[in-house]
Design brief:
globular, mainly alpha, 12 helices, 74% helix
């Protein structure tokens, strides 16, 4: 199973996934540029908001906090420093790149120029400025926490701990996207666009890391080969 998971990080598999995500991103961007507030997205957003218990609403608000400055800066800096001190220098450098790459959302927002959800259509808890597509929170979480999942795969040899850490990171990414719709900050396709772009860049970064460290030439990482 470990060998199979790492084979999925090999160039042919990453390339196939990358081109699929590139096509999905292009379609979502074109949709966002031409559709401001589709009725189906209004209905989905209203359903999410009406079906969410108060506990989930509070979690959504918390996710917004950790996805915005200064918390969105403090968490990456702490994680990057910890990786560096732990001796994972290559991973810490790429993790810093994953954190910084979130600025891509600014350029895409300007290009697509989609308005945010209107308070006349859905419940808007946070009134934010700027454009709606893609969700910067979803994109940033996918990039940063997604690369941490990759770091855990390579660096944590104890399987139960590795799975616990990776599962927690996946939950953070999912909840970040959910929070954007639940709070009325983004339409569902904005979140999907954030995920798609985040995975697109994440795939490129994983490829670059494995290329730089020579993993494609020597096979499995030693730390992964020793994992139970």
């Amino acid at each position: 199973m470990q060998r199979f998971r790492l084979q999925l990080l090999e160039p042919p598999y990453l390339a196939a996934a990358w081109f699929f995500l590139l096509g999905a991103t292009a379609l979502l961007a074109i949709y966002g540029a031409n559709v401001a507030d589709a009725s189906w997205e209004v209905e989905v957003t209203r359903w999410v908001q009406s079906a969410s218990p108060d506990a989930l609403h509070q979690i959504a608000r918390f996710m917004t906090v950790i996805g915005r400055s200064p918390i969105s800066t403090i968490i990456p800096v702490a994680a990057i420093a910890a990786m560096w001190v732990w001796g994972q220098r290559h991973l810490s450098i790429f993790l810093a790149g994953a954190a910084v790459a979130r600025v891509l959302s600014i350029a895409v927002k300007e290009l697509v120029d989609r308005p945010r959800p209107s308070a006349s259509l859905v419940d808007v808890t946070y009134h934010l400025g700027g454009h709606s597509f893609p969700s910067g929170h979803a994109l940033g979480a996918t990039l940063f926490y997604g690369f941490l999942i990759y770091c855990a795969e390579l660096s944590i040899s104890h399987k139960p701990v590795r799975r616990l850490v990776q599962g927690g990171l996946v939950i953070v990414i999912v909840l970040m996207g959910y929070s954007r719709v639940e709070l009325g900050a983004h339409w569902p396709t904005d979140v999907l666009g954030g995920y798609a772009i985040g995975l697109l860049v994440l795939g490129a970064m994983v490829w670059l890391h494995r290329r730089w460290t020579g993993e494609y030439r020597k096979g499995r990482p030693e730390s992964a080969a020793a994992a139970p």
